[in-house]
């Protein structure tokens, strides 16, 4: 976190270190290394009707609401310019929103800034997250110390993170001499070094090779499952979203267009599409009949077979279509359901005319946190907390 008005690019900020005053104010309950727990029963993060406009007309975040349950990983997904970074910065108090409310573990970040951000870590994309002249190990110790972690426990946790994120080999190398991916992993390790229960990560896999991205995914799942860490991350990487996130909030043009589990979102777009392989090549007459009576997405000769893709409204309709094929003297070699993958779901959700989730509840959580009107708090208390200063987000 960062004190109001501070230069966002400073190392302590974006590696998730709290502002100095927050560190001073952090609770030291006898065992400073004891991991704080969010046990108030409140959502770990609650965002209500958050709105941010840059200048006169760039509405980067437009009435966004969602909750994040403790110990879950929630992905923010959206095309370039959808508002993900602005949203994360607004939640972190690095950008002053025009309206809305944010609670962390039930504490209003604008009313009680120090308390709200006490157990929050963050890694922001494109910012200098770590001290480049220090080695990886030194950075880990530095950020753990900022979090008031007992030095012995900090060392132990630091070594664990070095192992898990495959950084041991470079542990004593100055960050300046590392590849971009290694720097990214170091920044992440530093964010995690304090063992905070809520972590925000903006594009954490950016610049990572496949192996590093996989170890990062494992680590994020482990944090949620073994340490009940709440993680909010933004990513363009569908693999990360699909394998790491419990839930995904999809943004488009500053608005929430979907808020549900990956599986539920896939189900939303599960058309009844089937791939049918027909023995032999179908003639023009059968082709015309199928096209007339059914939605034929594809009909193509492949070797001695014909590959069809059909969209049907019911199993009965599928059987009727297959009956037409059989009546024409063909055998049906195979029938497979064709579901959209998550990338396709995402593209369809973020199409300009996609209906917001509030209009089309899906899955088992129809409220989904997407209803901007629900319980909206439309006023940022002016002059309160970290945001009483100037808008520090104008860094682009
Ligand atoms: N400091 C700023 N001043 C003016 N406009 C800004 C500023 N920061 C972001 N914007 C604009 O706000 C909108 C949302 O940008 P933001 O960076 O939040 O989106 P994003 O989803 O994080 O994009 P990306 O995936 O490309 O990082 C864009 O139109 C962007 O140009």
Automatic annotation (TrEMBL):
Gene3D superfamilies: P-loop containing nucleotide triphosphate hydrolases. Keywords: ATP-binding, Nucleotide-binding, Transport. One of its GO terms (molecular function) is ATP binding. Pfam families: ABC_tran. Residues 369-379 have a biased composition (Low complexity). Residues 45-278 form the ABC transporter domain. InterPro entries: AAA+_ATPase, ABC_transporter-like_ATP-bd, ABC_transporter_ATP-binding, P-loop_NTPase. Residues 1-40, 353-396 are annotated as: Disordered. Belongs to the ABC transporter superfamily. This is ABC transporter ATP-binding protein. It comes from Halobium salinum.
